[in-house]
Amino acid sequence: MSAHDNSEHGDGATQLAQALIAQLERIGGASTTTTGGLSAVEARLATHYALLSNALGNFGRHSAVRLALLSPPPTLVSRPGGSGGGSYTKLLLGPPIDGAATVTTYGADGRRLQRLTYLADGVQVQNPGDIRTVEIEDSRGTPFRVGFVSTPATTGTY
Amino acid sequence: MFRTLARLYVDPTLTTAGSGPFAGDPVFTTHPVQLSRWLEQVFAHGGIAQLPSLGSEPVPVNAEAVLRLQLPAGLRDRTADVGTGTLESGLTDLGVGSDPPTFDPNPPAALGTTLPLVWDHLVYAYLIESTGILPVFAEVVRRFSVGETLEAPAPQTLAWARATEELFFRDPPLFHVGGLTSQLRPDAAVNRRNAYWRMFGWDLPHPGPDGQPWKRDVGAAANTRFLELIGELLRQVWLGFENQNNSSGANPTDDTYLGYVCQTLGEMLRMRRRGGMLAREEFSYVTMMSWFHLTVETDTSVVRDLRAVADVGGNAADRLAGIASRVGMTLPRQTRELFDLADLLSPILWFIELGRFNSAAQARTLYLTSGGANPIAEDMLRLIDLWQSATGARVKDLSVVDRPGPAVRAADAAGGAGRPAPARPIQPTRLPAGPTLSTIPAAGARPASVNGSGATVR
Description:
The complex is a heterodimer. Chain A has helices spanning about 5-10, 10-35, 40-60; strands at about 75-80, 85-90, 100-105, 110-115, 125, 135, 145-150.
């Protein structure tokens, strides 16, 4: 008679065993998450490494498939409007990016400036002159594209 | 760098997914004066310093040194504000769209110069040169130039031979960033060996000039512990990889120590770069080696003419071996590993120099493979395989500690003869439980040098 049959018949020992197994699986699952997966910081480190590796020419070599990590250079566009009749600046990220959830902007010193919800037609940013790089993240907050702002916002209206 | 240029010819923004390698012939048929000027334009952008920062980590390439060594912007680029661009390369999307590539007379920024274009770490140049690629191609170019002992080259091959000779076997243009030979240091080969020795404490596996002049006047400033530390790094990474999923029992992985080894390596390498030392040398040597690497990375015109085709999916080592046999040379048996190691070790060492594995939390990314894709660990594991294969060091057998002494040449990887030093703990600074003064033997009681005895040629 199988354990399944036993459980159907309300065998107390089998039910206890199944509960224990379920508990162990929960513990095992939690353990894997704690020791195995990359944290957001580590994942960002890994993305930057892949970016460097690709930039050095290892794109697709050595068996490991590397995805495109550079996004087309984001551009800053100043537009009239906004509060007080002034203007606001939008960061345009090129063609829609599958899987993008958030956009984080960084300054030249690596300081995080803003984290914004990704919008395919661009995101409104503050202090555009400080933005040096842009990272596009998935729904878990892991960056998978990096863009270098090609034109400083301080050079005028685009 | 030239391998990246080959990619830029077909993917100017480096944003298209696809796999390399990329054909080298369009680069080889570009006029050498444009290539030479393009190198100036790339150097001026600072290489690794452009990589987005993660915080306050050190930057190995000294930005001020680059600023002071580069060609003035007005000569280098033609823009509205800064000058005439008399020495610009004219290598743009438009310029490279024709065959052969032309000079774009009214160019936007040159190819790649608006991107984070990074050049390889000096270790790339060392490992590629260790394959023996340079003497092989020197002989090929010489034979093409002086006689007909090889088949008549195709026009593309002739263009490659001309560009190779102009770029690497004669003095570069005056005031060029690659102008590293002079009356004071006339031998380019000695100059390269000098840089390798200072940075890694490594000699090339093939013989150099008598008397080892590249070690003269270096002083005590050679990183002779580098090999010892890189071996320890690989062992610790393997230890971490083996034990990463332990959910019960002891886990000997020590992320703090792993971070410490990385920090020590990074500090050691950055010491040699203080004030921008070796910046021009590194740029020039990795550029030079990437040219030759690109030559054998695909079935280029040169490879076809020398009947060394390895087809799609073939590797650079096989092509180079074929070419070497045409000019009566033999390569070290580790050539294939050296090519692959060069690609993998270069970004790892850049990251180590950037201090990005210094903390325990960062260091664990060197081995974590569970829980999602981790290109760092993937590369490290491949690197360990290649290192074992090339050097014979048993990195994965943690019961064997084969610690070479500081003076051992890393050229073991290419057939050099290493001399094992007495095993000793590698982390004395963390565990200062070494011998006390009373147990240290007197100088006269130390064992005699074993230099040369028992050396094995791998």
